[in-house]
Design goal:
The structure is a homodimer. The first copy, chain A, is mainly α. The first copy, chain A, has 17 helices and two strands. Chain A is globular. Chains A and B meet through α5, α7 and α8 of A and α5, α7 and α8 of B.
Chain lengths: 325, 325
């Protein structure tokens, strides 16, 4: 999603009950942020409160559709909160590994409090996600969330295993994107459907595809920039040894690129030059097109749903695309 | 427990069904180690396979007592595996933060593969623990495990918040020990009891106390050494700013110690000298006595149990003490 405003538009399209549920999700996240006693969760609290666009919790609610009684509603709110907590945990750990100074315009936990506290804060957010679902006592929900959190970690391991490998197969790259991003979007949609007895597999597949497209387009942005929009220099992934779709497509179009040694990149200037060579092959347009195809597949394969619910989900899909238009 | 041999003695005392269940736990841990596809969980697999004394899984089985049908047995094995996975995850993350070169005589994950892979490996082990319990579909089990894993992370946060504070209150220190160590021992005993409909609260309280005593005695060892036995220099905690029971008791006996500035410790030699000053106050004997009192309380408060089960639990309690005799 491009902006908080775009998320607001989706919430409006989805109907007043979604706005109300999002408010309950925020309320519960604030409670958790304040919980655990003053000092204890200072950093976890700040992380939760700092927010973000809450795209994943929104997907939980949209996948559930119309409101469905207080028990289902409580389950939905718990699921939405749990998904956001897992997402926050993964961001906190990512920031530790990247030694990132800021996120969402605030200092990261690692910048504010050091690696030890930041690692423990991520672990705490992670644990709290499962505690939140455990309170509901729904085994299917715990199963969906643990599958996604395992996938997130496996995605990171695959990314490390494939680092610096310019010849990484396309399929392996796509698998990594599903693990890193698709799996939590899938869990969000699955959890929403489970709470109301909806079509969990079909909505899960929608979420997985939307997440995959989200990651593909994110990887395009790393090469295309501009930095003024992404908030980071072009080619950051390349400098880090992470081979993504633009380079995978470009190496087929320009054989010289297939011989690139990413370890030889000495600085951001050289990384930008490589981005320019990748862009010159037309690979960025093809990568974007492939991402749009995935989004189109996602919406085409949506199961039969009430009109309003379908429109809201399509708006989310369009928002993922629009971010990169 | 002093050694793998002591654990074997407990297993023998507990009866052949415990040996059989431990074999099933090991089998399942090996399956998980081999799972996730070749490269993916290479490091998680190595961590699981490397083993340890499996004290926590053993507690799960002992708290359950006599065998009780295949469904309860499967639940027990899952719980024992999940507890060991959480323990392994926390060790892997600890090693990242301590940049530890070896554990259990092998290179740590962080030493072998770097911080990024080690952090993700810890996250994966963590997620797998919940996936293992989710497969069983028992909400109470997930609740017990998520409470313990939250506590582990909070324990680390408390430890960081109190770092370098020589005046930390005794109660706060004890709370930290329960969070860091008691909570997972408690969960182990609780999970064992839950699987067979046993007295979960009473056995959980036993586990919490045994875990607390385990941590108290561990903290004594850091000051008492000898390094030849602990495998690390005396005063490692002090150099790290971690104030534990020996110093807390010693500062009351020797007011000069209350004015210690741990940040002024320049090297292991100065840390050893501080250990000697702490030992000279008699604080180590008092700390040991307090730990033994906690163990005595734990066994005294055991609920009515079959003789064989009670004896096995008492042997574990004795083993925790013996390690430091």
């Amino acid at each position: 999603m491009a902006t908080a405003a775009a998320v607001d538009a989706v919430v409006r399209a989805a109907g007043p009950h979604v706005a109300e549920l999002m408010a309950r999700v925020e309320q519960r996240l604030r409670e958790l942020a304040a919980g655990h006693g003053a000092v204890l969760a200072e950093h976890a609290g700040a992380t939760i409160a700092a927010g973000g666009k809450r795209l994943r919790p929104l997907l939980v609610l949209l996948a559930a559709g119309a409101p469905a009684g207080e028990a289902a509603t409580r389950r939905l709110v718990r699921s939405a909160v749990a998904v956001e907590l897992i997402h926050s945990a993964s961001l906190v750990h990512d920031d530790v590994l990247d030694a990132a100074p800021t996120r969402r315009g605030r200092p990261t936990v690692v910048a504010a409090a050091g690696r030890r506290i930041a690692t423990a804060t991520g672990d705490l957010l992670f644990s709290r996600a499962f505690a939140e679902l455990a309170a509901g006592g729904e085994p299917d929900d715990v199963r969906a969330l643990s599958a996604a959190s395992s996938a997130l970690a496996r995605g990171e391991l695959v990314q490390r295993a494939d680092a610096w490998n310019v010849a990484v197969p396309l399929e392996r790259y796509l698998e990594r994107c599903v693990l890193k991003t698709g799996s939590l979007f899938e869990a969000a949609c699955r959890l929403g459907a489970l709470a109301v007895g909806g079509p969990a597999d079909a909505l899960g597949a929608f979420g997985r595809r939307i997440g995959l497209a989200f990651q593909l387009l994110d990887d395009v942005l790393d090469v295309s920039g501009p930095a003024s929009r992404t908030g980071k220099a072009r080619g950051t992934d390349l400098l880090d040894g992470t081979v993504t779709l633009p380079l995978i497509l470009a190496r087929q179009r320009d054989p010289a690129l297939a011989a690139t040694d990413l370890r030889a990149l000495r600085d951001p200037v050289e990384a930008e030059a490589l981005c320019d060579r990748i862009a010159a092959t037309g690979a960025l347009e093809e990568a974007r097109r492939r991402a749009l195809d995935v989004v189109a597949e996602a919406t085409a394969a949506l199961p039969a749903l009430p009109d309003r619910q379908r429109r809201a989900l399509e708006l989310v899909a369009a928002g993922v695309v629009e971010r990169y238009a």
